[in-house]
Amino acid sequence: MVALDEGWADPARRYGSARRSRLLLDQAREQAAALVGCRPDEISFPSSGTAAVHAGVLGVRHARARVGSHVVVSAAEHSSVLAAAAHPSGAAVGTPRGTPARAGSPRTDPADHVTRVPVDASGRVHLDGFVRALRDDTALACLQSANHEVGTRQPVAEAAAACRDAGVPLLVDAAQSLGWERPAEGWSLVTASAHKWGGPAGVGLLAVRTGTRWRSPWPEDERGGGRAPGYENVPGVVAAVTALEAVRASAAHDAARDSALIDRVRRVVAETVPDVEVLGDAVERLPHIATFTCLYADGESLVAELDREGFAVSSGSSCSASSLRPSHVLVAMGASTSGSVRVSLPRDADEADVERFLEVLPSVVARVRALLGAEGL
Amino acid sequence: MSGDGPDGTLVDARGLRCPAPVIALARAARAAEGDDLVVLLADDPAAVPDVAAWCRMRGHTLVEAGPERFVVRVSRTPAAAGGSAPS
């Protein structure tokens, strides 16, 4: 890796190795800008996708505190978006300390300033509801490019047009889709995470369109354009951007292949597993994710049994989550949460592995149900 | 765990974690006649989405939707008849 040899030095210094490091970082920013569809000076690299979301959401709320503290999100956003939208610090900025809440003020609860727009049974946000939620005091709207649990694509272009008309900046969490394609036009901010496209951990991506009001919610720091404070991880950034270029080069081919495999998973699971519901939109979805939920089975056991068969899947059930709460995405969709399983194909997914998964799944589900005494229901 | 109350069959699944409350509910519904009521008591937060989804998938009517007391009107339509076909 050239970046490890040449990119170890501090890109903010002036000695030779430091200037080489700066060159690598600038080059990476240019490559990333071309892949995102924006200008290089609009790109920064926070230390994770979550850090990128926090910087994007809090920075806009901070800069637009005089407009208001209202934030619009879809109910299916990633937890980092929901948490940053609800975070009290952004709402409190610009409000004099010690001001008593007015009687009947809707903002006494820190999360009261957030409108969560419902999604339909496929996980797609109700576009009309999203547009209607935009108000004069809306500081920011957030909509993911596609859902991280069920893969359903969101109507980002339509939402962006409505946000532009309302004068509200739109943050698009593109963590799930940036490895496949550019985000739809019209966004004000884009966030993503390199590990999602096969890059290293510790590299996030934040793009802020020129003209979008953004102010650092943290102490001043000149690095990362003020948006990603601290010593830049140049080798990580170079590796992340190189990986993104590589996956994009084969994206069309890989998407067609993965999508056909996922179509097969969706069809065969519905046919061979009793009392199952396949979730997410069948067509308007990411190429590589299939999610289904089995009645009378628990996610924890399904994950463990499939792990024993050699498959690493995840579940949105409360019994398998560290929070002990069911997935807010599945709840918003009205889906059964307990027996949910998400299959996410790696880029090099082998068709034979998918076939073997489909072969063992019915008996795995039957075994888990038998252990729970849930046969013949 | 279950018995007959004035409102129909009573299933007490308090203290049980997902998916045990729904399994107990499904068992009671299987034993019930069409239009019978089944009352489920459950305090696992996952019961709220899971009971609603189960009713939708099996064609039963959710009369009371929790958070700790659920009332289900059992249906005997083909979708709710059990067996292997997903609705």
Report what the structure shows.
The complex is a heterodimer of chains A (377) and B (87). Helix content of chain A is 39%, strand content 12%. In chain A, helix 3 (49-63) packs parallel to helix 4 (79-86). By secondary structure, chain A is of the alpha/beta class. Chain A has a seven-stranded mixed β-sheet, sandwiched between helices. In chain A, strands 8-9-10 form a three-stranded antiparallel β-sheet. In chain A, strand 4, helix 7 (156-166) and strand 5 form a beta-alpha-beta unit. Residues 91-109 of chain A have low confidence and may be disordered. Chain B is of the alpha+beta class and 87 residues long. Chain B has helices at 20-31, 47-58, and strands at 2-5, 8-12, 37-41, 61-65, 69-73. Chain B has a five-stranded mixed β-sheet with strand order 1-2-3-5-4, with helices on one face. In chain B, helix 1 (20-31) links the parallel strand 2 (8-12) and strand 3. Mean pLDDT of chain B is 84; it is low at 81-87. Chains A and B meet through loops of A and helix 1 and helix 2 of B.
Give, in spatial order, the strands making up the sheet with the most strands of chain A.
Answer: 1-7-6-5-4-2-3
Compute the average pLDDT of chain A: 90
Helical run tally of chain B: 2
Distance between the termini of chain B: 29 Å
User: In one word, what is the shape of chain B?
Assistant: globular
Structural class, from helix and strand content of chain B? Answer: alpha+beta
Largest sheet of chain A: 7 strands, mixed
Q: pLDDT under 50 segments of chain A (min length 5)?
A: 91-109
Tell me the span between the first and last alpha carbons of chain A.
57 Å
Major beta sheet summary of chain B: 5 strands, mixed
The percent of residues in helical segments of chain B reads 25-40%
Poorly predicted tracts of residues of chain B? 81-87
Strand content of chain A: 5-15%
Strand residue percentage of chain B: 25-35%
Largest interface: A-B, 28 and 25 residues
Radius of gyration of chain B: 12 Å
- Strand arrangement within the widest β-sheet of chain B reads 1-2-3-5-4
- Oligomer category: heterodimer
